[in-house]
Amino acid sequence: MKRQQEDYILRGWKIALWVLLVMVGVSLVPPVTLGGVELRRANIFADLYRFEERTTPQEEATPLFDEAEFEVDLEAVSQQVEAVQQQLAQADTLPHEAPTEYRWALNEQQPTRTEPTINPARYSSRLTPIEDFSQEGLIAAFCDTLIEASRPIRIAVLGDSFIEGDILTADLRERLQTAFGGRGTGFTPMASPLTGFRRSIKTQSKGWTSYNIMQHKSVPAPYNEQFFVSGWVCRPTDGASTRWEETTFRKQLDSCSVARVLFRSPASSRIQLIVNDSLNHEFRIEGADKVRQAVVEADHIRSLEFKVLEGASSMVGYGAIFEDGGVVVDNYSVRSNNGQAIFRTNPTINAEINAMLGYDLVILQYGLNIMQAGVHKYTSYGQQIEKVITYCRQCFPSAAILVMGVSDRAIKNENGVETMDAIPYMIDCQRTAARNQGAAFWSTFDAMQAEGGIREFVTKGWAGKDFTHINYGGGRRVAWALFDAINDEAAKAAERRKRRLEAAKPVIDSMEQLEQLLKPLESGAPTFEEAAPTVIER
Amino acid sequence: MEELLTNIEALLQYNPLSPLIFSSGLFLYLFVGFLGLYWVLRNTTHARILYVVAFSLYFYFKSSGWYFVLLILVATYDYLIGYSLYFTRSPRGRKWLVGASVVINLALLGYFKYTNFLGDLANQLFGAGFLEFQNIFLPVGISFFIFQSMSYTIDIYRGQLHPLDSWLDYLFYLSFFPQLVAGPIVRASHFIPQIRRRPLVTREMLGSALFLILTGLFKKAVISDYIALNFVDRIFDEPLLYSGFECLMGIYGYALQIYCDFSGYSDMAIGLALLMGFHFPKNFDAPYRSATITEFWRRWHISLSSWLRDYLYISLGGNRKGKGRTYLNLLLTMLLGGLWHGAAVRFILWGALHGVALALHKMWLAVVPGAKVLGKDMNPVMRLMGILFTFHLVCLGWLVFRADSMQSAGLMLHQIFAAFDTKLIPQILSGYSGAFLLIAIGYLLHAVPDRGDRWLRGVITRAPMGWQVAMAVAMIWLVMQVKSSDIQPFIYFQF
Fold it and tell me: Which of A168, B33, B255, B345 sits most deeply, having the most CB atoms within 10 A of its CB?
């Protein structure tokens, strides 16, 4: 009996030993695919020894996307955009043209930009510079505008679910507005199932049906032909309304001085705007087949409500833009878009809206959903990215284009969580596309690596556990790195400006001397010095 | 070779980021080595005790570094207090001694576990910088071994236990590695008699041990870890990105995840102790089959709930001081029980919810004639209704327990009641098929009657050694496949 009892401790040990020995044998079995199921190597000694798995990179996976669905005729796009520009140029000469803009001014002063200050302090661990491949130096030109222009500077960020809900853009906006002036959350859609997730503005919508560009096949006509780069068209019923309320989620958001609502009203309609839940104004909209904007100017806009009182049947709503005199960052994120959904937007509508706004910079954030582990070739996707750049250039001719490289993404395997092997190849494809098209490139991956990479982001709670999507915390880090890159370029622009002013100083001085000499000859006419105080007083 | 040696050295070092857990490869290699020598030393009591203590202290060092000294410190003062208690006759002296033990233990627990929390709370109330101190490291398992140690001195004070003659034996009890970091909370009165007994493992014990370790591994490392990473965590992180259906499934998933994680780990601890000839009490007994909240607390984390009953509820006066006081005692016990789980308002709220529910149920039992405590005494319809009601009440508790903030919990409820979105259900089920399959398996296995458990236990016990090895290898292989499987992408995004 005693012997038998003792044997069971020994047997427990024997079992444990055998399990370990068998598992050592199992560790030698390489990964296999059985009946379509991929079985990983079960390496019990993964902590101590890692096997180098031989993987053969796959050819470009087929089909990564339906090319036919996203066919685009860039020549036709160009013609459409030109037609809009010609029409706008001739607007004054036409006998009667329905107004494009309906303005309601409540403010006492026009919004002005505060003088930008360049602060060289860095927010990220390491500078990830912008690589500008344009011959004209478009990023430098954008930064000249950023520090010098006395009008709003507009940035459109087009992306996928990575920036959904104003992730990344909320912090890019905060930094840019803090440094270069500006308030307001930028573009926000009229209605979408995701408005609740966005924390940089509160949206309450009633009576709208929202259509998403990714489901364009199931969107009824004529709504399927009216997409803007925002990716949403919203169809109202009479009485439909949307109320936006500013938040304190980030700095500079709690109030702004200009709000514009973008919509189309092919037939006559009647709309109402309510500011801060107190003042309201009605507009009768004359029917016309083009994008309109209802603009409110007030010293402090904290909330805005837009109501469709009549004529909803043919109307389409896009959304509102909240801004001030400075930097405006518009988030145009479309979930599961690899960039090509832009080809399903209407170039005329894009051009009409751009004519109202005038974008200075378009940032493209795509590629995450095309990338696949083991796929190292992205040639045809690269060609599509080049087309996207061309398309953006046609619709937003005044804007510099910046391609953001794909972000860091990790996958799980027998060695734990590792960076996806496809990333360098995707980055290479995006950088090449930017170079071929004379656009700029910024490596999101490098910026994330400088902060520890996606695994560190997950550990710190800055990214989701899919090791792909960042959250607001992660967005802040990436945005800070991008801001540093832009700020670095802006510092160079400030230096250029300073040199320019210094170079021009002798000319200005001699002009003043000349004026002094001519003074006795121009008796009675006010001099520059005499006129100046009047200008200031006014 | 040099790299291998460096890796071995790094692996054996203290690493706060990778505590030594039973489902790791390192534990398997260490345990194989440990058990062999344990068998050799089985007849030499002193050497065996010393050996197990040394291994346990190393086990603790691997997870908490030099804080293993704290474990030795607790063992020392409570051993001395226990010894003094036995020889002190005056009631006042005895009260002072047991009071000292309770105060020192709670002070230690309070310092390590609650200082950061109280500091944050004070800074929130009175402004940042009101209290400034370094972030205090939380030694792993401190809540478990402090409670164990308190049970020793209190039992001696109550005259229910003789103190140990040997300090080493007491250190053995407190540091015993299977239950050291995550319980069960083993009572001194239950464990101490087993220390010096020559270890005895019967065939049934070995079979039960294998059954508990393998099912524990399945619950912890297959179900819980997979559904947490691939489904539950993401919903609790950003509830507004998900439909009401996903939020509801997220809560059901979390209820299963926390059960599988905790009970799986407990089962492995009980199984490992059995392999060494030690019996631990059952810690979980299919808690979601409870038909009332009172029954739930007899089936969930039994070692904690019975500890709270015996040392807190009864010390507060239990039900001996009138009805009102009984309800208050229940509420207080559960509030403190909630706080024991961690230093956060959400744990206190969770405790309060259970306290109120238990008090209301006690009231219900007093007022409604024929009301039953246990499901087995009810008719089948009442029992089913009771199970569903209790399960959802417990889920509400888990929502509070898991959500980052009350706002986040509110958002999940908002999604469930205002944006359920039934038309998304097929897409969600297919997108998260792996997670939903495991959730279904988890709940189905939970519903299997006890005789199912007994049958499988019997099969494993009777199996020849080769089959036992094969079953263990198969389970470890499955765990490793799940551990290295692709992360389920966020289907809602599809990027």
Answer: A168
